[in-house]
Amino acid sequence: MRFRSQIAMNVRRISCVFVITSWITFSLYYYDTIYGAIKPTIEILISANKDLTFEEILTYNGTEDDLIKTPGCYIPNYGITLKFREAKIIKHFCGTRAVFIEKISEEYLLINIDDTINEYSKGNDYNCCYQFVTPALVEGITDHRKIRYSPCAPFENQTKIELLEEIIVVKCTTKLKVVYEDAYIFVKKLKREEYDDLNHEKPWNVLILGMDTMSRARLISSMPKTAQLLRNHHWLDFRAYQKVGYNTFPNVMALLTGRNQSQVHTECHKSLDQCNDIMLWSYFKKAGYYTASGEDFLRLPDTFTRYDGFKNAPTDHYMRPFFLTGENSIGNLVCTKKRPSAHHLLDYALDFTNTYKNDKFFGMFWFNSFSHNLNNVPELIDSDLAKFFETIHTNGILNKTFILFLSDHGLRYGEMRVPYESYYEERLPMLYLWVPNNLRRRYEMFKNLLVNQSRLVTPYDMYVTLLNILEIGNNTEKTSNACPNCVSIINELSRNRTCSDAHVHEKWCSCHPLTKATNDAAIKNALDAAIDDIYDIVKNIKTKNCMQCADLKLKDVLRAHSYKASNATIFVLAFQMTPGDVSYEASVEHRGDNFTVLDTTQTISVYNTRGNCVLNPVHRAYCICVKRC
Ligand SMILES: *[C@@H]1O[C@H](CO)[C@@H](O)[C@H](O)[C@H]1NC(C)=O
Ligand SMILES: *[C@@H]1O[C@H](CO)[C@@H](O)[C@H](O)[C@H]1NC(C)=O
Ligand SMILES: *[C@@H]1O[C@H](CO)[C@@H](O)[C@H](O)[C@H]1NC(C)=O
Ligand SMILES: *[C@@H]1O[C@H](CO)[C@@H](O)[C@H](O)[C@H]1NC(C)=O
Ligand SMILES: *[C@@H]1O[C@H](CO)[C@@H](O)[C@H](O)[C@H]1NC(C)=O
Ligand SMILES: *[C@@H]1O[C@H](CO)[C@@H](O)[C@H](O)[C@H]1NC(C)=O
Ligand SMILES: *[C@@H]1O[C@H](CO)[C@@H](O)[C@H](O)[C@H]1NC(C)=O
Ligand SMILES: *[C@@H]1O[C@H](CO)[C@@H](O)[C@H](O)[C@H]1NC(C)=O
Ligand SMILES: CC(=O)N[C@H]1CO[C@H](CO)[C@@H](O)[C@@H]1O
């Protein structure tokens, strides 16, 4: 078997055989009734094994000074002192639904018109019709970046219609005007011939739910109900999940392809379609899985809009055409017709898992609209998400499904980036993992996962882990191109693991305590290096005609911290430049007499609209545009 359960078979391990056997008996007995298989593990291991490290890991309760503390990586528990401030709630209502469509079987839908329709029609006579929405045909070729509509077919209350296409829009009109519009999406089950060529001892399903800009600390502070629910149901909580790139794209692609940004660029720059073969879901699809993907808030320049987006559906089921029916920003929300976009996404994810619960599936759904922008409020989806997880816990998929609830990074900009703790906040996205009940019974694998909650883990590791999950029972080894020595977290991860072992650039590495810098002369030198580096960037920015970037001057040093690396001191500096008041965070390495800026200094300010004259959008944060002629 592939899980390297052969790990160092040391003496202690052998003496544990008895413990393991009794653990299995014990846990099967108490299984699901008392502690969901975790508590017995803790008690037996602690009482019989006396493995203090293990005890420390399993009894971690969140009040400790550290998130993890291993020889290779110490991360302070920064969430204890960082106070999260979220946007004020101004408006959080997309509209009142009056037309409901319900799936009554795999093939049929029932339309119900609620009495509230009279409020829309103001008592006038009205007629309603529905249209199916499909990807556009451009010169005979399907293009999922655009949509087309079928002719509008009339319906009345309690009309039964056939589920011909996944996306449906309805509109109701009086003599005068359209009074009601709404949009719906359902999973239309695909039928594939059974094939089982992979000799799987047992196929595991995978569901990935990603929520943008959500650190573990932010989840606990801003979505307490969801956080509590995950704890109550014994989801694993990887406290040192470490990002590997600046924003969404590099981190999501690291998870989906195991590649770093330059490798992704090499493979994907011609178009995302061209590199779909290296995405995780394609490996699962080839193995006979049904696949789905979806992302809300399409206007963001972020996730899968790079390189012109997908023209072909990357997965069997693909939500993009649905959101193309029209998303509107209303107050703190992003709505698709009468419901928040993210609610459509949650319902579809649930529909997908229900539809294929007797087959094998891989689904990935990414939520932007409640957390990406500073005016989004995570709390507004807290109850719905908790309810979603509660439903998942009763719909029978948990025996054989891995569920990853994760993010790409923490808060990257805004006033929350002024406190020094935000250095960790930005770098540590959440990663919660549901381990299938049937795998929890397999002691070695589950024990590794438990232990690895307090190890340094990256998206590259998760890529390898998911491939590992696909191939449990198959004998092929897969690795991450960006991190060839990374292993599945179901295997052993070393306590000694450092950022460099995990292929995390020093710039993003969270594995060290920060202390307030006190050496004024060194701070000044580091600051000069950081500012010179920004001047170098500004000097080379290309702008629109008759515009140029203003000369910047230091306005204020917001904070100055440092940490020790091998034979060097790294300064972490946040400072503000004028004009424009844009702030930056730089990491500067002090080695011997040299001060060297690590990687690209990034802004920690909100979107700089005064930088709109630049030709390459990545330069916007470094330019305050002024007229030149
Ligand atoms: C958390 O664990 C620490 C020891 O690691 C202990 O001192 C403390 O009382 C615990 N707190 C709670 C609330 O359980
Ligand atoms: C539609 O039918 C349902 C069930 O018969 C009924 O409760 C509802 O009032 C009807 N809606 C309208 C607008 O008449
Ligand atoms: C999950 O597995 C347990 C133990 O094998 C079994 O009793 C239970 O019926 C399974 N649940 C579902 C929904 O398959
Ligand atoms: C499983 O192993 C076989 C033979 O080693 C290989 O052909 C197949 O591609 C593997 N499955 C996957 C999903 O990689
Ligand atoms: C990407 O990974 C390769 C292989 O590990 C490495 O040579 C290269 O420097 C990495 N590129 C970046 C931008 O990290
Ligand atoms: C971790 O580092 C310690 C001290 O350097 C060393 O004794 C130990 O063998 C290392 N463990 C592993 C698994 O590399
Ligand atoms: C640190 O400096 C010492 C003495 O100059 C040298 O022997 C050692 O190799 C250096 N270590 C690293 C990691 O550069
Ligand atoms: C400092 O920089 C100079 C010039 O780049 C280089 O030759 C020297 O080795 C560097 N010193 C240290 C300690 O890195
Ligand atoms: C990456 C990591 O820390 N893996 C660990 C996972 O758990 C096993 C079991 O304790 C450890 O041996 C690994 O080192």
UniProtKB/TrEMBL annotation:
It comes from the Eukaryota. One of its GO terms (cellular component) is extracellular space. The chain crosses the membrane at residues 12-31. Keywords: Membrane, Transmembrane, Transmembrane helix. It holds the Pfam family DUF229. InterPro entries: Alkaline_phosphatase_core_sf (IPR017850), DUF229 (IPR004245). PANTHER family: DUF229 DOMAIN CONTAINING PROTEIN-RELATED, FI08016P-RELATED. This is Uncharacterized protein.
